[in-house]
Amino acid sequence: MAEGYCVRCKAKKPIENAVEETMKNGRKAVKGKCPTCGAVMFKILGGKALSSPTAATPTPPAV
């Protein structure tokens, strides 16, 4: 379960109904609700999402 910071409660809490999303710039994020006040919580995760499995493997140089 992801933990995020609620701006309304001003405390770290577990994100309820967490859904992983990919932002426009390719980064992963988790979006959900605060279990106490119901405000939207959003946490940006580290690293970029891969667009395709072949993008991760470099091509060998031509000889």
> Helix fraction?
under 10%
Biggest sheet layout? 3 strands, antiparallel
Let me know the average pLDDT.
86
- Our count of helices gives 0
Low-confidence stretches: none
Architecture overview:
The strands form two sheets. Strands 3-4-5 form a three-stranded antiparallel sheet, with no helix packed on it. A two-stranded antiparallel ribbon has the order 1-2. With 63 residues, it is mainly β. The chain has one domain. The protein is rod-shaped, with a radius of gyration of 17 Å. Strand 3 and strand 4 (27-33) form a beta hairpin. The protein has strands spanning 3-6, 11-14, 16-22, 27-33, 40-48. The protein has no helices and five strands.
Task: Summarize this entry quickly.
The protein has strands at 3-6, 11-14, 16-22, 27-33, 40-48. It has 63 residues and is mainly beta.
Layout of strands and helices, then pairs:
Elements: E1 3-6, E2 11-14, E3 16-22, E4 27-33, E5 40-48
Antiparallel strand pairs: 1-2, 3-4, 4-5
Structural features:
63 residues; mainly beta; two-stranded antiparallel ribbon
